[in-house]
Every structure is written in C-alpha cells, then in structure tokens.
Amino acid sequence: MNQVDQTHDPKLRSWIESANDGSDFPIQNLPFGVFSCGDAQPRGGVRIGDKVFDIFAGCSSGLFTDQAAEAAEAASGPLLNTFLKLGQGPRRALRGRLSQLFTTGSSERLRVEKCLLDISDVTMHLPAQIGDYTDFYVGIHHATNVGRLFRPDNPLLPNYKYVPIGYHGRASSIRPSRIPMRRPVGQLKAADTDVPRFAPTERLDYELELGIWVGPGNDQGTPVAIGEAAGSIAGFCLLNDWSARDIQAWEYQPLGPFLSKSFASTISPWIITPEALAPFRVAQPARPEGDPSPLPYLLDETDQRSGAFDIELEVLLLTQGLREKGLPPHRLALSNTRHMYWTVAQMVTHHTANGCNLQPGDLLGTGTISGPESDAYGSILEATEGGKHAIELASGEVRRFIEDGDEVLLQARGRREGFVTIGFGECRSLVLPAQ
C-alpha cells in the first residue's frame, strides 16, 4: 500500500508559480499523460500547474539516473503501457526525482525550463493503448436507485452484496476529454407499443465514474490475491461512461448492455498515480448491519483499513442557454468515492479470480458513484427519476436527459486537512446531433 512521504509535504512549493495555491496540479500531484505539440509526434509528459514537462526532452538532457531513468524512458514515448507495466518501484523513483526538479531552489531549474511547454499549446491524447475495458457497478446508491425504477419492491438483487458486479465494455470508443460525442442511434421501444423503432436516443445520460489504469497485470490462469491487488493498479482518471437509457431498457435482457454503452466513453487525460493519492486513502466504510461479509478471497485487513479513497466527485452541465447568457455551468451532483461498496483491490481480485489476465493499460470503471442524497446522484436518470422531474437551470432551460449541444464536465479533488488538495483535471465532452 502506498505511503505518505516527502513528496506529499504540504510545505513543498514549486518555482513554477502556477502550480502553487489552488491548482489541480501542484507539485504534490505530478500525473502522467501523452501530449503533442504542433505536428510533432505524441510523447509522454508530466503536468504541473499550467505547464507540461516533456519527459523525452528531460531524458535527453540527462536529468534522470538509475530507476528514475528507467521509468522516464518508459514514460517518454507515444503510449504509456510500458511505463504502467513497471510497477510501483520505478514509478515512485521517478516521482521523487520530479519532485526534486520542480521544488523551489532546485539547482536544475535552467535545464528543466527548457523541457516545459504551456498547457494551452498542447493537445492531449489517450495516455495508453487500452486493450480491454471493464465497467463495474460498485456504487451501491446508484445500483439501488436504478433498481428501484425497474423493481420498486426489490431494487437490489441478492448477488450485489457478494459479487463485485461488472461487464466487459468497448475499448475502441473511449476518447480523451474535449473530444465531442455524437448522439447514438438504436432500437427504442415505448411501453405502449408492440414493436421497436430505430431512432436517435431520447434518453442520453452521463455516468460519474472513477477509471482505474491496470499496471503490471497477471498471467492467464494466475489470479491476483487480494493482498497483492494494489500492486496491479498504476493510476486513476475520471470516466464518463455515456449511456442511452431507452436503448438500454430494450436490449439489456438477457445479456446486458450493448449498443446503449458501446458508442462512447470519455476519460480525463492525466493518470493520477496511486502515490499521489496516498494522503487520501481511508478505511472502507463498515457494511450496514445484516450485510454479509465479503467472501475470504475478497477480504484483506490492510485493504479494509486503507483501501478506500476520500475523493470528491463533481458533475457540471454547460448548455447553449447558459453559454449565451454568460452563466457558469450548473452543478448536477457532488459525490464522493467513499460511496463505493467494493474497493478497487476487490475489483481487481474478483476480475482475475477465474484466471482472467489483466494487461498493462487495461481500463476498469467503478460504475456510477452516487451518494445517498439527490444532490449526489451520479446520473441524470437518478436525478430526474427516469425523466419524471425536470432539472431547472438558471438560463430558464430544463433538462430531463442530456440534449444536443450540452457539455458534461466531470471534476475530482482529493482533500484532507494537513495536505495539499490535488485534482484530476477536467473530463468533458460536447454532445453532437445524431448522424
């Protein structure tokens, strides 16, 4: 399990002034991503304040040695899969060296300055080749709310509290933040009709999720034990797993989601490392009285003591009407990762329990993370009770589901007294009309 060390010291300040005092990307964060500038090929970078550190340039300047050099070389290319595979040791060594380079008073400042670019001058890309994508369902309040819409008397099926439920999603349609998403078309069937029709979805929804990047992975046939699962996790991002609720309602029986989910998912482009999130680890909340204990293969004392996270999650909506009137985005929800019924380690362990092999760069989604109150619901399906109640905006517009021209923004922050707040950056996408 990752420990707090000198890189988390709240007294650390950077000579890059934009990294101090309120940035999502202070010196205590240092996430990794892939960027391009102009016509140059994509390459690995580190975000600090409003700057991007070009890792390839840093390697060429001789800024790294030993394990930090190994990790920097792996993180300097157009995809970070090799870097993710290295695991905690090299990743932590590189983080420590970067912290030294960016700290106020660094003797390497002049060399480092030559490796910096303004964030406004770069384009962000997917940080890794995503071989497989699995979406879980660990937000118990979301599962209960959605279940109540379809099964009022039995909202939560009995397997939920025994099994970290998940399904295999579509990796090819995952896009980084700021890439527009086109409204999907599929079969819709109204309750008062006998046959479906083929049309654009009328119930487009967002899902507020945390994404988990797989690191070293495991060999096929070799499960990852719960006590070792944290070592398979290379980082985190925000994930909006877009959903077409009317297509989903018609197609999901008997095999689950298909066209209602595979058309698009949006992620934030920066990989927030487990080391950066060490100060925000907390105990997994105790299960309500009467709930079963996890089966032994999913139960580990260390994981229960410090395998959960306290990360604030926010959903914002920006509409054409809000833009035209110069109004700020409307907050739809403010939730927290503390509402996850299963830990990230439990997700990894269950995923591999049957011998399934995870690979570096695979992406896992938590599923929608809703809180217990309506202002913390992580999907508009919940917030409007399936479209029954409209959300009123300051522009005079109303929303029951997401409309063309709307832009959904996800944000996240780790906060803890005595430590510097870090953020994930934005996960945002504009909805275009169906083609």
Strand and helix layout:
Blueprint: E1 32-36, E2 43-48, E3 51-54, H1 55-60, H2 66-74, H3 81-86, H4 88-102, H5 109-113, E4 116-118, E5 123-125, E6 133-136, H6 140-150, E7 166-168, E8 174-176, E9 181-182, E10 185-188, E11 197-200, E12 204-205, E13 208-214, E14 233-240, E15 243-244, H7 245-251, E16 265-267, E17 281-282, H8 301-306, E18 308-309, E19 311-318, H9 320-324, E20 330-336, H10 344-352, E21 363-365, H11 380-383, E22 391-392, E23 398-399, E24 407-414, E25 422-423, E26 427-432
Parallel strand pairs: 6-21, 8-16, 9-26
Antiparallel strand pairs: 1-2, 1-5, 2-3, 3-4, 6-7, 10-11, 12-15, 13-14, 13-21, 14-16, 17-18, 19-20, 19-24, 22-23, 24-25, 24-26
Helix pairs in contact: 2-4
What does this molecule look like?
The structure is a single chain. The chain is 19% helix and 24% strand. With 435 residues, it is of the alpha+beta class. The chain has two domains: 6-125, Fumarylacetoacetase, N-terminal domain (SH3 type barrels, Roll), CATH 2.30.30; 133-432, Fumarylacetoacetase-like, C-terminal domain (Fumarylacetoacetate hydrolase, domain 2), CATH 3.90.850. A hairpin with a 7-residue loop joins β24 (407-414) and β25 (422-423). The chain is globular, with a radius of gyration of 22 Å.
